[in-house]
């Protein structure tokens, strides 16, 4: 079972009406601006939970999709190509003073899903505002990656292959965001900014999504009866991905001091859980090789280490407890067998085998679409 952490998708935004701010020079451009506003409003209503339409209408508007998450993905995939085209045409006249003024008047506002709650006022979430269309593109793309990951989590119980694919696609979105979108936004960022626009956080989310994808791949491998030796390496590979994420998070906390502590705990706890699972399979492999003492030593050390990383969140604690109980029971059986049959010496911690990791998943590259339509402004 994976630890569920869906906070990155919990973004909110304020209404934007493009045609009220940008002056169109012709009726066709005006229709483009209205369509852009209309597509965004559907996203606003979905994530702000402010829609008044019925489930049946929502399903019809999303091409028959029944899942709320799928509907949000559909709306994002309708909006992002229009936004990419709009920014392309704005960039062509970016030197014009009027264009800069319009961007300021648009008032692009988003909350952060990953900001620390300490110090926030009780009146509601904090909205960050930027006079830059790439802020809109960055936050919408970040949301797209987060919703892809959320859908992957939903599919876990029923479709491991599709779940893995969606995690890898989400990783590709965050890779694109970090490398192609956020660098150009950095010069205009204020000191106080949402963590979502810090490039290093997108690197962290990419690594988390890859770790999720490998964890689901391992579940499929377990169903196929893969050897304990390989399963141990795959679980340790997940731990290595999360080690990388933790290292990048340290940089993120320097760049953005208001990041919430829960994402840090999530990375730490996931790493500990997969390391525990890795050592359980190492112990199984050692037992098969008739190295009972080493098998016992590995499990004892694994339980000592994991107790130092127990999460504070109750739903995560229950997953940890289940895993720890299984390992403790396995250890009890091994110790009993060793006492009455093998009488092997249990080595000290520094004599135990060094774990090996194997990382087998890669991102699915994200190639944004742009609906090529001419747009002309009245300048």
From TrEMBL:
State the Gene3D superfamilies in the record.
alix/aip1 like domains
Q: Which Pfam families match?
A: BRO1
Signal peptide interval: none
Stated name of the protein: Uncharacterized protein LOC107429501 isoform X1
Organism per entry: Ziziphus jujuba
Please give the InterPro entries that the UniProt record associates with this protein.
BRO1_dom (IPR004328), BRO1_sf (IPR038499), BROX (IPR038898)
- PROSITE patterns the UniProt entry points to: BRO1
Q: Which family does it belong to?
A: Belongs to the BROX family.
Domain annotation BRO1: ranges: 1-366
The record ties this protein, via SMART domains, to: BRO1
């Amino acid at each position: 079972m994976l630890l569920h952490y869906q906070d990155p998708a919990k973004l909110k935004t304020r209404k934007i009406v493009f045609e009220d701010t940008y002056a169109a020079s012709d009726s066709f451009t005006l229709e483009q601006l209205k369509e852009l506003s209309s597509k965004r409003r559907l996203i606003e209503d979905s994530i702000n939970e402010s829609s008044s339409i019925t489930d049946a209408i929502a399903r019809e508007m999303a091409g028959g999709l029944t899942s709320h998450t799928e509907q949000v993905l559909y709306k994002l995939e309708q909006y992002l190509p229009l936004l990419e085209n709009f920014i392309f045409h704005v960039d062509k006249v970016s030197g014009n003073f009027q264009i800069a003024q319009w961007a300021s008047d648009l008032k692009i506002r988003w909350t952060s899903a990953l900001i620390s709650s300490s110090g926030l006022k009780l009146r509601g979430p904090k909205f960050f505002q930027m006079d830059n269309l790439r802020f809109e593109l960055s936050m919408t793309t970040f949301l797209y990656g987060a919703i892809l990951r959320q859908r992957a989590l939903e599919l876990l119980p029923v479709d491991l292959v599709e779940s893995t694919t969606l995690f890898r696609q989400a990783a590709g979105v965050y890779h694109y965001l970090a490398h192609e979108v956020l660098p150009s936004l950095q010069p205009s960022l204020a000191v106080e900014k949402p963590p979502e626009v810090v490039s290093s956080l997108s690197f962290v989310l990419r690594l988390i999504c890859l770790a999720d994808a490998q964890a689901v791949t391992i579940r499929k491998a377990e169903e196929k009866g893969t050897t304990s030796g390989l399963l141990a390496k795959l679980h340790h590979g997940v731990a290595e991905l999360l080690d990388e994420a933790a290292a990048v998070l340290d940089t993120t906390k320097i760049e953005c001091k208001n990041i919430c502590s829960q994402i840090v705990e999530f990375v730490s706890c996931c790493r500990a859980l997969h390391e525990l699972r890795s050592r359980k399979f190492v112990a199984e492999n050692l037992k098969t090789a008739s190295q009972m003492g080493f098998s016992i030593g590995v499990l004892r050390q694994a339980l000592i280490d994991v107790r130092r990383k127990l999460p504070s969140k109750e739903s995560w604690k229950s997953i940890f407890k289940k895993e720890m109980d299984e390992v403790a029971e396995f250890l009890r059986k091994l110790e009993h067998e060793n006492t009455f049959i093998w009488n092997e010496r249990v080595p000290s911690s520094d004599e135990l085998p060094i774990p090996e990791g194997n990382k087998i998943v890669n991102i699915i590259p994200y190639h944004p679409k742009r609906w090529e339509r001419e747009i002309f402004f009245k300048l």
